[in-house]
Design brief:
- The chain is an alpha/beta fold.
- Helix content is 29%, strand content 27%.
- Helix 1 packs antiparallel against helix 2 (23-50).
- The model is unreliable at 184-204 (pLDDT under 50).
Length: 386
């Protein structure tokens, strides 16, 4: 509006000049103002038809809290004249923060490509995106503003994989006890059976008192409770079932803390896997990444591989959420869910479909809703909710 008033003022002055002072001089000024408006309008309309935008990120994968650049590239396909003034507004997903402003104005020379770098910083684990929110076009005189058709930049999306950390939480006895009771060994056999030979001639269990340094997975908790002292097995069972984990990240949650909650629950699951590996447990980890995937975790290297895979994790389509239902029959499955109190319905539907234990974060705000529910805090300490 200010520029329009300024332009009209110039026209009025030119008219006064032509009428009262110098007719030819005033006429010349009016011609120049008209030509300027026509050229400005022509550049605006041509730019609207010919401008194309793209985004390129300086890296495809990054750790958390690392800076990177997003290059926003504008191509002016007309060689004759430069573009009008182009105002670009970019936006990024909640797990990415802006270091420099996400808005800028520029003019692209005719037949050239103009690249403007925006500095960003990774915040939380998972797939991050950078895209163009809007492009507004202003004529040279600043009188007219148009919006560039979104079809010319909607595919301009930069994606970056942000790796979660693997927290070192040490050994948490209560958690390991619950896990070992659920998955690794069958403590329902009597003591006499555990020392007997099977029909195949394979020996059963032999026991001794617990000594400092013994893996907690070898503790026979049922026998220990009978004898009122910790007893460990000397032989592992021939077949031992692994603990099954599921990662639940439903879509549709618009809570501003959801990205942080995803980060917390992903790292909590990695912390538990790391803890179990140190104690000799094997696990099976199920997650959604372009379809439900299952990964056996048998050694520390498997966790590193999973860490890289989870760098691309993102909320999955609602219709795919319970596609793992055929897997729920596994022994004592544990579900790490990113559900929050602000989306209570999501957790309620999960409890209806999933028959196992649940792990939620303190950040989620969820209270105890089932007996098999665990809470993990910011330091990745697990405790059973009471």
């Amino acid at each position: 509006m200010k520029n329009l008033l300024g332009y009209l003022t110039c026209v009025a002055v030119a008219i006064l000049l032509r009428v009262y002072i110098n007719g030819s001089g005033g006429t010349l000024v009016l011609y120049l103002l008209a030509i300027a408006f026509v050229i400005s309008l022509a550049a605006l309309l041509i730019t609207k038809r010919k401008l194309v935008a793209a985004i390129k990120l300086s890296t495809e994968i990054s750790a958390k809290n690392e800076e990177f650049d997003a290059d926003i590239m504008l191509l002016n396909a007309i060689r004759i004249i430069p573009s009008c003034v182009v105002e670009v507004t970019a936006e990024c997903s909640d797990n990415i923060g802006a270091v420099s402003p996400l808005e800028f104005k520029t003019i692209v020379a005719g037949g050239r490509q103009q690249s403007v770098s925006v500095k960003l910083k990774t915040r939380y684990a998972g797939l991050g995106t950078v895209k163009i929110k809007s492009i507004r076009l202003h004529d040279y005189l600043g009188i007219i503003t148009l919006h560039l058709d979104s079809s010319r930049y909607e595919k301009a999306v930069g994606k970056i994989k942000i790796m979660p950390n693997i927290p070192d939480t040490g050994s948490q006895t209560e958690l390991l006890k619950a896990t070992s009771e659920n998955a690794s060994f069958d403590d329902n056999e009597s003591e006499s059976d555990e020392n007997a030979l099977g029909l195949t001639g394979v020996p059963g269990y032999d026991h001794r008192q617990y000594e400092i340094g013994d893996p907690l997975k070898r503790i026979n908790w049922k026998l220990s409770s009978k004898r009122d002292e910790l007893m460990v097995r000397l032989d592992e069972k021939v077949t031992a079932s692994s603990q099954a984990f599921f990662l639940d990240i439903p879509s549709g949650n618009h809570d501003p803390m959801f990205a942080m909650n995803i980060d917390n629950i992903v790292e909590a699951s990695l912390a538990m896997l790391s803890m179990l590996i140190m104690e000799g447990f094997e696990s099976e980890y199920n997650y959604y990444l372009d379809g439900w995937k299952s990964m056996k975790i048998k050694q520390a290297g498997d966790i590193i591989e999973l860490q890289n895979n989870l760098a691309a994790i993102a909320p999955y389509p609602q219709e795919k959420r319970f596609a793992f239902s055929h897997e729920i029959g596994k022994t004592a499955p544990i579900c790490f869910t990113a559900c929050m109190a602000t989306s209570q319905g999501e957790f309620s539907s999960l409890m209806e479909e999933f028959n196992g234990s649940f792990v939620v974060t303190r950040l989620s705000g969820l209270d105890k809703q089932t007996e098999n529910m665990w809470l993990v805090d910011e330091t990745f300490e697990f405790r059973k909710m009471t």
